[in-house]
Predict the structure.
Amino acid sequence: MPLSLQLLETNMNAWKLRLSMAGTLAIIFGLSTLVFTVIMSLAGVFDLLMLGVLVVAFNIIQWLISPYLVGAIYRVREIPASENPQLHQMVDDLSQRSKISKPRLMLSQIPIPNAFAYGSPLTGNRVAVTQGLLKSLDEDEVEAVIGHELGHLRHRDVQVMMVVSFLPALFYYIGFSLMLSGMYRGRRDDSGGAALIGIGFMIFSWVLNLFTLYLSRLREYYADRHSVSVVDNGAKKLSLGLAKIVNTTRKVNDAKKAQREKPSSSAFKALFIADPDRANADSAELAAAGAQVDQKLVQEIMSKKLTFVDKLVEALSTHPNIIKRLQALQELS
């Protein structure tokens, strides 16, 4: 295919991705507003409104202090420039290419190879790499992974996902409140109707959460594209890095299980570049493709067909299926 046609196809795919994300956001906010309006007209506005304000306030506070929670869970500390000047220079160069201010560079002292971007107005933006990542990946692959995380900061994914994620929680707690209220009042008034509305509200929150997970997966693809745009030969480097992350994470998890240790917490796994809870499944899919972690792996993964179970598991995940993700990167190569 001529280079001009390849560039045109790449640009069209990028626009499709942007439209998919915009469409998903529109669905999430549109459905949320519609259902919230219906519920407010069917029940006491004041009580529901107060509950909504409390849920929103709780999520905002949680977002503001989340960097401290992440730091405590994943044993994060800042990396001084004198400790790893090469890594600092890498982040500085990629930040300039990404047209963002350089985030604070952090080290998560856990063995699982991964990286994540996070922050709030109280702490500023941060990018963390784990000890396992620095030990498992080559310098070029670490560069591609950091490029991905800077993509999240460039696209304000931390803020977007914070806003979107609290909506399912908002509807769930309102529905739960209505259901409990209806059950407590028994047969008085129209308590049965309130309980049914509450149950319906809780079901809707689950449906809304599926859209939130889908948006999270789309933004992972978008961050991958950013890495490719700011890192030389980024598609190849990121593909190899992701494959190594999956395989090494599986080995670490297997070793912990053999020693009867609790796997590392994944409470904030949506922040990670790869889902640690899917490491075993992803690694099995890589093995089924019949290759080792090298460039051959990427080619063989592209030919593997996804099963219905693969698609179902992906629908409930914050990250795309590893095979689909590597196939998308290969198209950008």
